[in-house]
Each structure stands twice: as structure tokens, then as C-alpha cells.
Request: fold
Amino acid sequence: MTWTFIFMMLVLKIPIAALIYLVWWAVHQTPEPAESTGGGGTSVRPHPHRRPPRPRQPRRGPHGQVALPSPPRVRTVRAQARRVEH
Reply:
């Protein structure tokens, strides 16, 4: 039991050491030089075309059309159990 605990404590420190090394490497890395933007194009992006607004729904009530009737109800048929005759 003691050796297992010691082994796990040593093995689980490897990812922590790797994380510390990764942070150290990121801090000491030199920035890359910026690429030249002399491609001849504009740096301003064009505005995309807006979609046209959707048509309004028809008005209901006294100033518009009559309200749509409610859809017909669907009634389920209850199946009755068969009687088994021996």
C-alpha cells in the first residue's frame, strides 16, 4: 500500500511539471513578425446586404379577416381486448 501511494504521487506530478513547462515556454516565446498587408486590397470589409423584411401576417379581428377555424379534433379509437375461449 505504501509503495503504491509513493508511485502514484510521483507519476501524478508529471502532468503538473508538463503544464509548468508549457507556461514557461509560452512566456519566453518571441512574437512572430506581422505579415505585410500590401496585397493591394482594401482593409475595410464591405457591409453584407441585409435580407428584406418578411411580409407581415394578416390582421385579425374587426379590421381584418375572420379568424381561422380551429382544426378538426382527432379522436383515437380505444381497442378492446379480445376474450380468449379455451
